[in-house]
């Protein structure tokens, strides 16, 4: 991992979890996925956690990210509106760029998914995922956004990350839920864990990360 990414940190109410520690927190997710670029997946999960914690304009919001296999994801999706990221150079659309991350937080209020390439470029936003997969493994009670995430991770090589309006973050790979991230520990007593056993559970500061065992 580059020095730039090592220095990244979660920030909330002026507090920070150092990027190295935060990165270690997500190593198990990378280890569980069928492929992983830590330099791309880690900052994407960090951003998802920030959105889950902060919401926007005083309300919780939900959104979806796909990471990797961007061409296939684009082929299995369509724009809901004129793409707000179209026409901008790749060098200003990397997932680690602070300005881009702020833009993503604003665009997350709109419907649709963000598509991120293997190289970490956010190539498109506000995409409707058209993937149809009949054999996905999704727990009962999860909604259409989670089904779309499971399906796109089944029909492509992408990993899908969902931020739910309940502030939970879930990761799908190969059509299955492989991890849940609880951005505030008090939520553990409020929401049912959807990840099926066996799974591991780790805490860092006020984060809990649950990862399904192979």
UniProtKB/TrEMBL annotation:
<keyword id="KW-0067">ATP-binding</keyword>
<dbReference type="GO" id="GO:0005524">
    <property type="term" value="F:ATP binding"/>
</dbReference>
<dbReference type="InterPro" id="IPR036888">
    <property type="entry name" value="DNA_integrity_DisA_N_sf"/>
</dbReference>
<dbReference type="InterPro" id="IPR014499">
    <property type="entry name" value="DAC_DacZ"/>
</dbReference>
<feature type="domain" description="DAC">
    <location>
        <begin position="8"/>
        <end position="184"/>
    </location>
</feature>
<protein>
    <recommendedName>
        <fullName>DAC domain-containing protein</fullName>
    </recommendedName>
</protein>
<dbReference type="InterPro" id="IPR003390">
    <property type="entry name" value="DNA_integrity_scan_DisA_N"/>
</dbReference>
<dbReference type="Pfam" id="PF02457">
    <property type="entry name" value="DAC"/>
</dbReference>
<dbReference type="GO" id="GO:0106408">
    <property type="term" value="F:diadenylate cyclase activity"/>
</dbReference>
<dbReference type="InterPro" id="IPR050338">
    <property type="entry name" value="DisA"/>
</dbReference>
<keyword id="KW-0808">Transferase</keyword>
<keyword id="KW-0547">Nucleotide-binding</keyword>
<keyword id="KW-0548">Nucleotidyltransferase</keyword>
<dbReference type="GO" id="GO:0004016">
    <property type="term" value="F:adenylate cyclase activity"/>
</dbReference>
